[in-house]
Fold:
Amino acid sequence: MKLSGIELDRETVKSVKAKLASILTATDDEVLEAIEALPSQVADIADAMEIVTLNGKASREWLGQTMASLPVEYCTRDGDLLSVTPSRSASLRYLIQDLMQVSEAEDTATIENRKLLINTLKSKLPPEPSRFTSMFAWSKGPGGYPILEDVALTHSIEKVEQAFYLTYAIIEQKERGRLGLGNALSTPTPIELIATIAKSASLEVYERLERLVAGFSNEDILESHLIAQVLCNVAANRVLLESARIGALAAEAAEVNTRLIGGLNSIGTLEIPQIESDEQIKHGLTLLFGAKGAFANVKGMSRRLLGADLETTVRAAHVIQDQYLHTRGALFRHTLPDGRLTPNDTFLFALALAGLFQTKTYVPSEFPNEDNYASFPGRGTAGRSGFLKPHAMELVKSMYGQMVFANTGWELRSDRIIAYAKAMDHKRSHLQMLLFKVFKRWTAGKICKLHNSLKKNPNICCQ
Structure:
């Protein structure tokens, strides 16, 4: 097939068209227009993909496994909502920490293949002008995260995510003031308001981002470069797939919580007692799940939580609580006494872990072609240190969040868990739509201007 003097054989066109459609989340017809309009860039992209196929590791399914692609069938649009379904390879592998003691034998081919793809595409960008270079420079994450390295653009995506959550918190606080509500941990925001607040936050942040690039020339903003556009999409797809995986884990958390808290409610437990120490946490769990515990006759929840398993539960509860405060709890940590949660909160993290122990819940591996693993760390596994791998840890975080924010005070009622989980899914969908519109549908020139603006002034919420 000859396009504007560029010779591309039919099989190459067919292959690159399918891969581009997956990366750009576009239809075949949309991609065919780009192929016909920009044949030289398409030839360069085809060459880059061929290099990964020939020289990558375990590369037969490299495109999906590197989280570089997001096919249209994984995206469902419903008005202002975009729901991203996790692909089989969607993973939080980049959140693996040194202390999680992941074996060096774990499959890292996906990491290396992603780097190879990005580096090869970068080599195809024109040397002059080099306006896109800064977006795609490699940038490491914080210490302790051995494989957390990606292009600098992912930091801009993270800043937009943070802006969404902060804007959400500001709007939420105004609504809470209007309703006369007190502390959010003791009196959560009504579930029916979550989606409305999220929609407002998404729209506000999008308008701010548009204002950030409004001062640049139309020629720069409208500049489109297919290879740069592909690289922007590769960065955005990873973030969107991670969000989708967290959403799937949250749905699993709601199912486990419904069984766990439903079991508690069935034996007359509607709230947790005041907890002061680890010993009281162990005592409370033993009363529920010990040899003669209240759950001894509850179908599917009667495993005995004793000895080393009980010690692991409490140890992991502390580790995950600390992780929660530095991730999901970062926005409200400053409102807590000494920046810490209470022993009651630690008990809820432990209770979530006990629920996973009881239900024998498995989660997908962080790496492709590996079996699902038990979310509660079995004997002899690295997770016994308390540092669960990312999917298991996020599952526990979601269970805790549902317990706390679906209920009032220290109540535990199963009937509100599913409604809260659905509302949070809507919140996640509004964020996914925001990221999709900006980092996958803006031109490469416009994204570049935004990236440079955020480097100079990262505080989007003050724009």
Summary: Residues 1-5 have pLDDT under 50 and may be disordered. Residues 73-100+132-463 form one domain. The first helix runs from residue 10 to 24. Residues 285 and 351 are 7 Å apart (CA to CA).
